[in-house]
Amino acid sequence: MIRAGGREGGSRPAAGRAGPSRAAMKKPDGKVVLLGDMNVGKTSLLHRYMERRFQETVSTVGGAFYLKQWGPYNISIWDTAGREQFHGLGSMYCRGAAAVILTYDVNSLQSLTELEERFLALTDSASADCIFAIVGNKSVASCSSKVRKQVRAEDKMCFETSAKTGYKVDYLFETVFEMVVPIIVRQKAEGPPQTVDITDYKPAKRTKSGCCA
Amino acid sequence: MSVKAFKLVSAVEREMLMGDKNYINIECIECCGKNLYIGTNDCFIYHFLLDEKISTAGKITFAATKQLHKYLGLKKPVSELKAASALTRLLVLCDNTITLVNMMNLEPVPTGARIKGAVTFALNENPVSGDPFCVEVCIISVKRRTIQMFMVFEDRVQIVKEVFTPEQPCAVAVDGYYLCLALTTQYIILNYNTGASQDLFPYCSDEKRPIVKRIGRQEFLLAGPGGLGMFATVDGISQRAPVHWSENVIGAALCFPYVVALDDEFITVHSMLDQQQKQTLPFKEGHILQDFEGKVIVATNKGVYILVPLPLEKQIQDLLASHRVEEALVLAKGARRNIPKEKFQVMYKRILQQAGFIQFAQLQFLEAKELFRSGQLDVRELISLYPFLLPTSSSFIRSHPPLHEYADLNQLTQGDQEKMTKCKRFLMSYLNEVRSTEVANGYKEDIDTALLKLYAEANHESLLDLLVSENFCLLTDSAAWLEKHKKYFALGLLYHYNGQDAAALQLWVKIVDGDIQDSTRSDLYEYIVDFLTFCPDQDLVWKYSEWVLEKNEQVGIQIFTKRPLEEQEKTNFKPDDIVSCLNKYPKARVKYLEHLVLERKIEKEKYHTHLAVLYLEAILQLKSVTTDNCTETTELLFKLRSLLQKSDLYRIHFILDKIQGTDLHMESAILYGKLEEHEKALHILVHKLKDFHAAEEYCMWNSENRDVQYRRRLFHMLLSVYLNPGTSDCALVMAAVDLLNNHAAEFDAALVLEVVPDSWSVQLLSPFLAGAVRQSIHTKRMTQTALGLAQAENLIYRHEKVKQKGTPILLSDKKVCQVCQNPFCEPVFVRYPNGGVVHTHCAANRHLNSNTTHHSSSSSNKT
């Protein structure tokens, strides 16, 4: 999904619509990771934002990611699997992340407590100046749930969204991206990235080549 | 969802290996170039040469010919084989010892160099030493939690480093200084140079066999929880989403863009580009899956098979054939680096076009458009889907092989009219968009003709816009189509655009006359008039002038009157011809003459007289019909008067003759005025019309641009008419008084006083008298002022003169004339006011030759 930036929310024509597939094409400049218990709607949130629609999804296996153009930067957004089975992978996904979106289900207090008990620890591997956003998904704008009171609503990095209706989904991601950009700029300024740019790669001498035998 | 990405081809049959000895199992394989090595559980190494054969049908088969087999004499299975082709060495792991044997004859190196105590080993494919005749080998040692790095040369080995791990390692892969290790409970990255380690993720190696596979520079593929194939870089970051294998995956290999995995029953193929499973091949009892320089080999205990990748193009075509556009495009893009650039671009364009047609057939027009655009589709491919849209003359032939499976739109929509309409609407907008872009280059005719046809068929308003702007519609094709759809007005526009104005007019006239039906324009008549007005073809204008005037004289005359002025002057639209042609159309004739006389201000007596006569006739005609003054008469009268007053060109006597005997007194007064017979005129105004105001006005306008004397004469004349002793009408006397009082300035007071009857009181004439006195004083003072100014001026000149006389001029032999530069021989000379002194004859010559008279005019002569 290529977007010229800015905050307008219209979806682009089809050629730009490529799911996780396009990920391999461009090198991301920053990483945003969605964490949270299973079935809180991480995939749906991402799907709603990228594809502009809601669709029942199956339980995510392992993880998936999208590449989003935000101004001049490519931001990769990782959707992780909430299932206990894949819990061990979380810390690898979070490594070097510029932002982590901790997601819970506003109808499940358990999913909120899980965030602290299970998921917060995973973010230790994230970038030192990583941004955290707390998102209560499955929000019904009109009603107020018990869980909502647990989260300090005045905190500006706390969101309530609904992937189903699209309520505040764009707002969530765009707010996060706006805050991620300075981190990317800083990281770029701090010298060469840890990862090696393969496009610069000059083939090394291969030991296993037949010609010199 | 499946793609046929690979084909399983047998390479080595079991008979070739073991014949009927069933206890022999394949333990490991290695493939290097054409050399295939197989290690068995009974301590043999087999060497085969693999020959790839491609049948005429494109089918690939492999023929393995056995070269050698070698018994290592240890009664232990050969657990791993790795070739180092640069050294022509084969590294053989058997009984925890790595020995070096010659790749060709399988003989151990004479030095007996070996690495002892290895559980398993890996070659560093991204070596750090830079020595081409050295292979870096990493082993998991039999010692607890120990990894050792070796340099292996042709006939010796050298330990480089030994590192310890927090847990027992059970699988390893190397890239540069980075070791990717599967430990008992987790995967880690370990930099053996710095000792830095990076946890990747937990994994229980006791429960499931870990997989550590280097897939490229600094990137590894690992077996993760839940049958995930996880990607990890040496920084401990995952840059690709995981692929989802089955839980009991045994081995994995990479063949871009696919990750191939092996389990008990299947070989599965996932794309690294979208992480989707693309293909499943049933394969029982497999236990080895490895890739060797792009060749994926899979083996059971008894036989060796090769997974032959199908050409990417074929795969892409298969995907397109099953309408999986997105996947096809992803694969095509992913293939970019595997295909030469030029070839890729051609291929990719074609794929985009095909994908576009697939989206089009599903009525996904937005997507289709984008694909057509990026695929630089020859628009005619799309147009040709629509029956009859391409011009018959078009040389277009659809590309071969075809980009889609449809014969035409009918087949595509299966006759669904609604779909058909949508498709047509799409083509309209698409063609409209591309027609002005470079996409249209070379086939503008085809595009515009198709667009015209679509517009005409759909009764679309843009049809007219298309035809009146620059377009490339082919005449014959378009004309037939427009006729078929009864778009006669548009057809006329088409003719006009193609320079066939006669045909266009013929059609339009028919529409107006109701011979053919086309309601496009309700004001078609006005349109035709306008068209003729700007039509450069005179014959055509003449031809249709009668028709136009017949319909409406007032509007129709515009074809002559509204023509661009410069054109009127240049061409043969001679006013005389037009006027004579207009004889039948009196209203038009008046309009035209008005145009000539009033607008173009043509100064020809003929037109002026003619127009005046026409006005006059019309007025008389109207007057004979009705007695009361209708607005038309008033209007005409106004026009006539205005003409008679303003124009000096008409034949006054002629008009006067015509006017005699009618009640058009005002007009005859004007005419008398023109003849300078003011007395007559004023007489009419005062006595016949009794319109004193008009009489005053008469004096005013008749004396316009004349001197004061003339005006005075007129006013005095009027006064004397008022005071004519023959009449003693009270009204006239009043008028006279008013005249004097209101226009005191126009009279010579002295003369007036002579004429005024003695009986009039001073009171009566006081405004006049006051005005006259004031005027007189004013005149006196003005004169005095003028006199004063003149005297002052005179004084200035006298001053000048004195000044000139004041300075003497000395003339000597040394002075030379400024003109001829000769000395003065006589005392006579000419001096210019600027001081220049010249001979008299020089001055005289100069007088003749030049016009610089302002010098000499004031020259003085002195002796």
Notes on the protein architecture:
The complex is a heterodimer of chains A (213) and B (863). By secondary structure, chain A is of the alpha/beta class. Chain A has a single domain (14-212), classed as Rossmann fold (3-Layer(aba) Sandwich). Chain A contains 5 helices and 6 strands. Chain A has helices at residues 42-51, 90-94, 109-119, 146-150, 169-189; strands at residues 30-36, 63-70, 73-80, 99-105, 131-137, 158-160. A 6-stranded mixed sheet of chain A has the order 2-3-1-4-5-6, with helices on both faces. Chain B is of the alpha+beta class and 863 residues long. Among the domains of chain B are: 6-310, Methylamine Dehydrogenase, Chain H (7 Propeller), CATH 2.130.10; 686-807, no CATH class; 808-862. Chain B is built from 32 helices and 31 strands. In chain B, the strands form 8 sheets. Chain B has a 4-stranded antiparallel sheet. In chain B, strands 2-3-4-5 form a 4-stranded antiparallel sheet, with no helix packed on it. The longest helix of chain B is centred in the C-terminal third of the chain and has 45 residues, at 762-806. Chain B is elongated and about 170 Å long. The chains are: A alpha/beta (213), B alpha+beta (863). At the A-B interface, strand 2 and helix 2 of A face strand 17, strand 20, strand 21, helix 3 and helix 5 of B.
Write out key terms for the chains shown:
A: alpha/beta, Rossmann fold, 5 helices, 19% strand, disordered N terminus, B: 863 residues, alpha+beta, four-stranded antiparallel beta sheet, 31 strands, 43% helix, 21% strand, elongated, cytoplasm (chain B), transport (chain B)
